[in-house]
């Protein structure tokens, strides 16, 4: 064993064995392939559905450059983070189990608090977006069946509130599953769902182009006209940039993915495996993003809907649109749990510390009362 690894083991008080890693946790068994599945699950999300609309706002040139640029930035940032999983040495140092742990080890306590606020704020926004998107997809299934029965001009208005409540109840149930993050098949299923609804969107776009021809497109997006002001163009451009950024909101959970018990075993070194998984996962995601954005924009042109599966750019075949929305729902059920993993672990850790403190106080009180009066025993509880 290397010297650095020996120090890490000695400091933690554990010895690596066939069943346990050097930090005393159950031995990690995953490879870069399982990590790639986690990454694809985290990267490819509901953001892919709005990329055609983003291209409509940005145009062919800026849209393609923006997607490529965010892909490179995300990949570069992720590769840097893979070396922060262990510190100070990226191969033999002490493990950091969360993004905030990595910040604290490398930047100090103040940055730890500031980054914690930023990370949890971003993750809260993402999970809210997932909740809204899932509810919209559920409602779209009901509307699609209504349009199929009563025609495309029927009202078929459906409120999303009930579906948000259903999604929340399901998430409450899933959050009670112990060690949910260890269920690697869930990430595989979620990744399959991601590819499925992306491929459905791509296929429907190709079918629309083949049947109706390309929509009206532009190198610079929707042009400024009397009924479309320059100010509105500017705000839509910023909104499109935000949608692309949302589509790549992944780096905040990379450390948690790398630390999961089913993700990466320690030989070969985790950082090398994770770099390989990051390149594979983000590259595959970018290819799908580019196909969805380019083909969606080519199919709808400047009239591209904000979500081409729920905005009813496609009505038929209705069953295929329904399958696409079902895939979105299944994917976001797992992705929501993955995104909330960091805040949930922090809450559990803090509640556990509070519980230990209360147990200690209770034990001290019981011992003190027992010493005062050996004849009268009191069973008290501060809870």
TrEMBL record:
Taxonomy, superkingdom: Eukaryota
Primary location class: membrane
CC annotations in GO: membrane
UniProt KW keywords: Amino-acid transport, Membrane, Transmembrane, Transmembrane helix, Transport
Record domain Amino acid transporter transmembrane: where: 28-337
Gene Ontology biological process terms in this record: amino acid transport
Keyword hit for Transport: yes
Transcription found in the keyword field: no
Classification via InterPro entries: AA_transpt_TM (IPR013057)
Pfam families according to UniProt: Aa_trans
Residues annotated as transmembrane: 35-53, 60-81, 117-141, 162-180, 186-207, 277-298, 318-336
Localization annotation: Membrane
The protein's name in its UniProt record: Amino acid transporter transmembrane domain-containing protein
Gene source species: Mikania micrantha (bitter vine)
């Amino acid at each position: 064993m290397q010297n650095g690894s020996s120090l890490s083991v000695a400091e933690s008080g554990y010895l690596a064995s066939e069943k346990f890693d050097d930090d005393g946790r159950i031995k990690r068994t995953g490879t870069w392939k399982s990590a790639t599945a986690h990454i694809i699950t985290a990267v490819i999300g509901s953001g892919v559905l709005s990329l055609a609309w983003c291209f409509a706002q940005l145009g062919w040139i800026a849209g393609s450059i923006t997607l490529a640029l965010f892909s490179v930035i995300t990949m570069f940032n992720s590769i840097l983070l893979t070396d922060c999983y262990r510190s100070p040495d990226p191969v033999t140092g002490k493990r950091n189990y969360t993004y905030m742990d990595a910040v604290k080890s490398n930047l100090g306590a103040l940055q730890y608090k500031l980054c914690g606020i930023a990370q949890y704020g971003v993750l809260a926004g993402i999970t809210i977006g997932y909740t809204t998107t899932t509810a919209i997809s559920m409602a779209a299934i009901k509307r699609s069946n209504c349009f199929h029965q009563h025609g495309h001009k029927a009202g078929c208005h459906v409120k999303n509130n009930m579906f948000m409540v259903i999604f929340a109840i399901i998430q409450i149930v899933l959050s009670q599953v112990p060690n949910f993050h260890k269920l690697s098949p869930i990430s595989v299923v979620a990744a399959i769902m991601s590819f499925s609804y992306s491929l459905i969107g791509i296929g429907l776009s190709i079918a629309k182009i083949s049947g109706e021809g390309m929509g009206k497109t532009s190198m610079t997006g929707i042009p400024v006209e009397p009924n479309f002001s320059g100010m509105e163009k500017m705000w839509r451009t910023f909104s499109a940039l935000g949608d692309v950024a949302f589509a790549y909101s992944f780096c905040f959970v990379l450390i948690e993915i790398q630390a999961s018990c089913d993700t990466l075993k320690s030989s070969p070194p985790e950082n090398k495996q994770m770099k390989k998984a990051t390149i594979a996962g983000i590259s595959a995601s970018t290819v799908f993003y580019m196909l969805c954005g380019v083909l969606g924009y080519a199919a709808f042109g400047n009239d591209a809907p904000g979500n081409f599966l729920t905005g009813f750019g496609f009505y038929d075949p209705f069953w295929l649109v329904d399958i696409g929305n079902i895939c979105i729902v299944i994917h976001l059920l797992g992705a929501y749990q993955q995104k909330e993993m960091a805040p949930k672990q922090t809450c559990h850790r803090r509640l556990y510390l509070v519980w230990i403190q209360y147990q200690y106080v209770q034990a001290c009180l019981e011992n003190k009362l027992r010493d005062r009066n050996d004849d009268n025993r009191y069973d008290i509880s501060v809870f």
